[in-house]
Amino acid sequence: MKLKKLTSTILTYTFLIMGAIIFIIPFLFLITSSFKSPEQIMSVPFRWLPKPWRWQNYIEAFRVQPFGRYYLNSTIVTSLNILGILTSCTLAGWGFSRKYYWGRDFFFLLILSCMMIPGQVTMIPLYIMYSKLGWINTYFPLILPSFFGSPFYIFLIRQFFLTIPDELADAAVIDGCSPFKVFWYVGLPLVKPALVSVTIFTFLAVWNDFFTPLIYLNSPQKYTVMLGLTAYQAEGFTHWEYLMAASTVAMLPVFVVFLSLQRYFVQGMAMSGLKG
């Protein structure tokens, strides 16, 4: 029995290690290529390590294109999206989980049904609406939708609110808390893992979004990071060394956010479906 268990453990870890190596190879290629010359990136046979290491690729990447400006634009857009999602979805999730009124379950199912509508269906109507409002080439189409909530995040936060015992809210009301104070001082502190999960999801979705800025932004000075990476691709020629360096810098916030918040992220995803 012990030999069988040991063999199973060895096979499991071997499979996981092989999978990790397969997934990490593209990242290693990206990082090492950011220190190479164009000739070394395209060299045959392929060489993993650059010789010599071209640290100036990172400096040149910011000099050739205003990548710092793209970074700032993405930071602003992503931060406002996170604020909008957390504000709208926590309020909606609290209302669907703790308040009892006629039609509550019907409206919740109606919101969930929105997840079945492909984005391609609403793309053209939304563009026409934003165009009539004069919002093309502005950040409004990229930011304002987050303040109206997201069905998936509302569902996630609602499921977490359902795990809070009713006695806690009742005790707060007896102590004199208003409905908003019950939400602020009782509800929110207890759903921190869910809020962190939503923050990570929103950050990854907005920071890595290429298609939405491509549709609505025309001015290069308003480009976000993902759209700004295309600036290194000229007609018939690509500055691969600068593109790799800029892509590495663009990838850093994703690693920092996920690694710093992964404990809450795992907890939030594990507990979001415990009740409901």
Structure in words:
This protein has 276 residues and is mostly helical. It has one domain: MetI-like (MetI-like fold, Orthogonal Bundle), CATH 1.10.3720. The chain has helices spanning 2-33, 38-41, 56-64, 67-98, 104-113, 119-132, 140-143, 151-161, 166-174, 179-190, 192-207, 211-216, 225-228, 240-271; strands spanning 233-234, 237-238. It has a two-stranded antiparallel sheet with strand order 1-2. Helix 4 (67-98) packs across helix 8 (151-161). It is globular, with a radius of gyration of 24 Å. The relative contact order is 0.14. Mean pLDDT is 86; it is low at 272-276.
Q: In which range does the helix fraction lie?
A: over 70%
Oligomeric state of shown chains:
single chain
> Structural class, judged by helices and strands?
mainly alpha
Quick one: CATH superfamily? MetI-like
Number of DSSP strands?
2
Helix run count: 14
Strand order of the largest sheet: 1-2
Distance between the termini: 40 Å
Largest sheet entry: 2 strands, antiparallel
Low-confidence stretches: 272-276
* N to C succession of SSEs: HHHHHHHHHHHHHEEH
**Overall domain count:** 1
Strand content: under 5%
- Rg measurement, Å: 24 Å
CATH fold label: MetI-like fold
Known CATH architecture: Orthogonal Bundle
